[in-house]
Each structure stands twice: as structure tokens, then as C-alpha cells.
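Q: I'm building a small set of examples for a reading group on sequence design. Run inverse folding on the following structure and report the sequence directly after it, with nothing in between.
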């Protein structure tokens, strides 16, 4: 069977629920992971997702900031809300997708953006971001299967990870080396987290590292398409046990033109399970 998993920083689920419904009708992913829902749990628009067949839902939200949600047509069993860096700020939830056999663990992450100044002494938001990455790398490493294990760990991690790790994940590598999201320290910590479970960068399985690939364009750009000053901040990662199952990806850049568009667009991956 095919499993399609999409991730989208929606930048307020209630404000953009019409766009979410339109996307779900267009692409029909089996699972949609949202970040920056900016919505307390009691106000989450459950009925809209229920009507479209997303009957399995895990949401963790708060007023005005952050918030993550997993909306699924596929049943999931175990659900976990993780609190990172000693904070309860709605940035990491996990489910176990029930597809028969060993479950596929799915993490939805909204890693801190980190503010504007890439200096931990001057910017506590940047320090929080780096600490979050260190914690995730350590946590994932603790879940790595033993070398002689007969079955590998089937895990997918998606979300707005707020780092563009490769040179061509940004519109201008040299200019952005001192800009939060592409600084060497962030790129190094992303690599450490990626190495912790030997994560596969799914879109880059299909798009070579020397080709430009973006998922975010700033609201500050008057004409985002003409300037094309993008960054790839939204990611889908899969463990080696799923390597043979990876069959496709899609980044729907055209959604950046929709009315009331988020500054991020959805990223989708397909797995043949």
C-alpha cells in the first residue's frame, strides 16, 4: 500500500482552514502534519477534518504561538506529547501509525526559529534553538536499533525544522551564512541530529544537492516568485528501514500564491509500505 505523509507550517490553522481543506481535497494525503497552528486545543477545527475523513487526530496547541497537529486517515495507536528543553510550548508530538506489522513511528516537530541574532549570549531564542537540536540528537540516538537487530526502526520525522542545511537550500549561500537558519552552527547541529538515526532526507533522494529546493518564501518579498529568495526549512526524514519504501515527493510551491497563503508550502512524501 502507498502511504502519503505531508507537512505544512500553516501559520494559524483557523485563519487558513479554507486553504487546508483545499489542499486536502487536491492531494488527499493519508496523513497531514501541521505546525504553528496557533490554536488552543478547545478551538481546534476538528469538524473540518472529520468531514474530509481525517478521523484520527492528535493536537497540541496554545494561544497565538506554536502548536502542532497530526491529522490522519490511517489509525494510530500510541500517542505521545513531548516537552523539550524544560518547556511546554507545543513543539513535538508523536504517534505510531497502524499499518499492520511493526508500526511506523511519526514525529511532528516545530523547532524554534531562533530569532534574528545568531549569538547565544545576545539572543535567548537562538540558544533555545540550539539546545532543542542537541536534545533531539541525543534523544534519537538513544532510540537507535542495535547493529544486529533483525528489524530496523521504521520512523518518519517531519516538520518545520527551521534550518536550511545545504548550500542550495537557500537562495544565496554566502549571504545567508550569518543569517539564522543557515549559520554553520545550526547546519552542524542539523547534521548531528540527522546522523543520530542515519536519517534519509527524502526530497533530496530525488533532487540533487546542487539543485535549488525551497519550501519557504518570506512575506517581505513583494513578488516572491520573481525574487525567488527561498529557503528549505520544512523537511521529511525517514530512517534506513524505510529506504526501499521511499517512492516520491512533492513540494507544492504554487500554494504560496493562494489567498491568505502561509509563508511555507506543503511538503509531501510517498512510501510504498
Amino acid at each position: 500500500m502507498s502511504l502519503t505523509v505531508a507537512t505544512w507550517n500553516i501559520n494559524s490553522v483557523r485563519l487558513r482552514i479554507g486553504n487546508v481543506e483545499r489542499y486536502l481535497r487536491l492531494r488527499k494525503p493519508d496523513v497531514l502534519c501541521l505546525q504553528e497552528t496557533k490554536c488552543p486545543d478547545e478551538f481546534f477545527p476538528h469538524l473540518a477534518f472529520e468531514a474530509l475523513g481525517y478521523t484520527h487526530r492528535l493536537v497540541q496547541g496554545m494561544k497565538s504561538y506554536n502548536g502542532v497537529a497530526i491529522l490522519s486517515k490511517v489509525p494510530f495507536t500510541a500517542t505521545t506529547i513531548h516537552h523539550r528543553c524544560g518547556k511546554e510550548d507545543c513543539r513535538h508530538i508523536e504517534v505510531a501509525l497502524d499499518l499492520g506489522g511493526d508500526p511506523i513511528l511519526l514525529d511532528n516537530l516545530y523547532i524554534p526559529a531562533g530569532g534574528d541574532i545568531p549569538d547565544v549570549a545576545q539572543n535567548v531564542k537562538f540558544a533555545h534553538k540550539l539546545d532543542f537540536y542537541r536534545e533531539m540528537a541525543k534523544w534519537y540516538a538513544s532510540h537507535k536499533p542495535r547493529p544486529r537487530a533483525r528489524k530496523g526502526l521504521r520512523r518518519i520525522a517531519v516538520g518545520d525544522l527551521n534550518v536550511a542545511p545545504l548550500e542550495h537550500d537557500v537562495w544565496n549561500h554566502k549571504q545567508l551564512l550569518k543569517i539564522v537558519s543557515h549559520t554553520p552552527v545550526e547546519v552542524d547541529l542539523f547534521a548531528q541530529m540527522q546522523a543520530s538515526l542515519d536519517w534519509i532526507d527524502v526530497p533530496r533522494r530525488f533532487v540533487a544537492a546542487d539543485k535549488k529546493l525551497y519550501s519557504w518564501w518570506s512575506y517581505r518579498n513583494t513578488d516572491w516568485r520573481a525574487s525567488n529568495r527561498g529557503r528549505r526549512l520544512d523537511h521529511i526524514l525517514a530512517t534506513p528501514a524505510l529506504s526501499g519504501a521511499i517512492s516520491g515527493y512533492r513540494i507544492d510551491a504554487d500554494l504560496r500564491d493562494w489567498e491568505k497563503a502561509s509563508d511555507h508550502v506543503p511538503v509531501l512524501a510517498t512510501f510504498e509500505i
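The chain has a mean pLDDT of 97.
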